[in-house]
């Protein structure tokens, strides 16, 4: 049950530090050595390209893991929207490997692609929260999320668990191919830092709720912007806000705004800017913040500590750049939660939505 929590979503948001630690217990031994089925690692090594297939939040988690996988596994990672690939499979590489990300393991759109992959003889891995689920049974391999049941329709802990589980897979594969960055990436330690960062953010709920007040209670639209990893988090942040607050929200690559979309910015349009500590892009995103502020946008900045400046709204403790999507998404989950709550909506059961989508 949800215990003393008013909604499952808040409980599940709060469970995320424990889920991060649980994954370290499952996927590493006491000495911190990563334990991933060797057959999965070998199949990844055999492949020349990784295709991540998913829907909704799981699709966004795939993007959040792309850079980490590419860096450590040394292969291109391509994302596919399950409902598109089921009918429009693009030309595949010579030795493809498919990863299906699915909290429920029952998403019909993803299954449609898995059926095709099996027909083509393409090896596959399902990363899922539900052992014995359809996608788990039908794929070559399974990696479990161990996040515990996710009841709220809006997915939270499955997103962060997916990124963490893929971090273990990337570390194991990178180590097997003697990738230097993999050798230097202590995933257990870095995830413990992530868990602490999440805890610090969770202790700031009142501050985060106060940012929603006046910003998201009556607005019809909003934007999340960011670059690189923060762009990927923007996609997830905006999906979360849309589905439970019914605010039309777009997650946008910050630099792309000036190529058209900035025309939508008017007085008091909420723009939430995500700025993790990536020196290559942080200053550019700041520039985009100034551009929208000059056009009247109501800006909220969500910034990693080392990139923070005076006047930032929400500051997040630093984590390893591979894992910043996990820590940066937490405030956006809370923002969606409080926006829904302040608008008097049923946080856990948004209209028109079901927890698992078993029709195409
Ligand atoms: C969003 C959400 C959906 C699911 C999507 C995929 O909060 O819950 O977008 O992420 O339907 O579901 P799974 O991961 O079960 O395949």
Features of the shown structure:
single chain, alpha/beta, five-stranded parallel beta sheet, 14 helices, 10 strands, binds fructose -6-phosphate, Glutamine--fructose-6-phosphate aminotransferase [isomerizing], cytoplasm, aminotransferase, repeat, glutamine-fructose-6-phosphate transaminase (isomerizing) activity
What does it look like?
- By secondary structure, the chain is α/β, with parallel strands linked by helices.
- The protein has 14 helices and 10 strands.
- Helix 2 packs parallel to helix 8.
- The radius of gyration is 20 Å and the shape is globular.
- The mean pLDDT is 97.
- The structure holds fructose -6-phosphate (F6R).
- The site of fructose -6-phosphate has 16 residues, from helix 4 and helix 12.
- Fructose -6-phosphate binds next to helix 4 and helix 12.
User: Total number of helical segments?
Assistant: 14
Rg, rounded, reads: 20 Å
What is the rounded distance between the termini? 30 Å
List the helices and strands in order.
HHHEHEHEHEHEHHHHEHEEHEEH
Q: Cofactors and ligands present?
A: fructose -6-phosphate
Uncertain parts? none
Percent of residues in beta strands?
15-25%
Subcellular location: Cytoplasm
Domain SIS: 40-179, 212-350
Function: Catalyzes the first step in hexosamine metabolism, converting fructose-6P into glucosamine-6P using glutamine as a nitrogen source.
EC number: 2.6.1.16
Task: Provide a short characterization of the protein structure.
This protein is an alpha/beta fold and 360 residues long. 46% of the residues lie in helices and 15% in strands. It is globular, with a radius of gyration of 20 Å.
């Amino acid at each position: 049950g949800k215990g003393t929590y008013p909604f499952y979503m808040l409980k599940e948001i709060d469970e995320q530090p424990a889920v991060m630690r649980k994954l370290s217990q499952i996927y590493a031994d006491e000495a911190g050595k990563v334990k991933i089925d060797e057959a999965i690692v070998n199949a990844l090594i055999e492949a020349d390209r990784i295709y991540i297939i998913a829907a909704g939040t799981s699709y966004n988690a795939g993007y959040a893991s792309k850079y980490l996988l590419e860096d450590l596994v040394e292969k291109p990672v391509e994302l596919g929207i399950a409902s598109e690939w089921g009918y429009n499979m693009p030309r595949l590489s010579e030795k493809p490997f498919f990863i299906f990300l699915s909290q429920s393991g029952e998403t019909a759109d993803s299954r449609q692609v898995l059926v095709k992959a099996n027909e083509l003889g393409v090896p596959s891995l399902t990363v899922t929260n539900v052992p014995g689920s359809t996608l788990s049974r039908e794929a070559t391999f399974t990696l479990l999320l161990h996040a515990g049941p996710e009841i709220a329709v809006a997915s939270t802990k499955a997103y962060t668990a997916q990124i963490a589980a893929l971090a273990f897979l990337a570390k194991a594969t990178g180590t097997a191919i003697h990738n230097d960055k993999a050798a230097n990436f202590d995933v257990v330690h870095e995830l413990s830092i992530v868990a602490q960062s999440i805890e610090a953010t969770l202790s700031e709920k009142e501050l985060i709720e106060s940012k929603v007040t006046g910003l998201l209670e009556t607005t019809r639209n909003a934007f999340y912007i960011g670059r690189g990893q923060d762009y990927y988090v923007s996609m997830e942040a905006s999906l979360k806000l849309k589905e439970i607050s019914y605010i039309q929200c777009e997650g946008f690559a910050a630099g792309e705004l000036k190529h058209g979309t900035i025309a939508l910015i008017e007085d008091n349009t909420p723009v939430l800017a995500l700025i993790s500590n990536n020196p290559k892009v942080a200053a550019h995103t700041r520039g985009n913040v100034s551009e929208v502020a000059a056009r009247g946008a109501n800006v909220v900045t969500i910034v990693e500590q080392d990139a923070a400046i005076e006047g930032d709204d929400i500051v997040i403790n630093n984590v390893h750049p591979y894992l910043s999507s996990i820590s940066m998404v937490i405030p956006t989950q809370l923002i969606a939660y409080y926006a829904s709550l302040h608008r008097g909506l049923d946080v856990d059961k948004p209209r028109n939505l079901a927890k698992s989508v078993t029709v195409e």
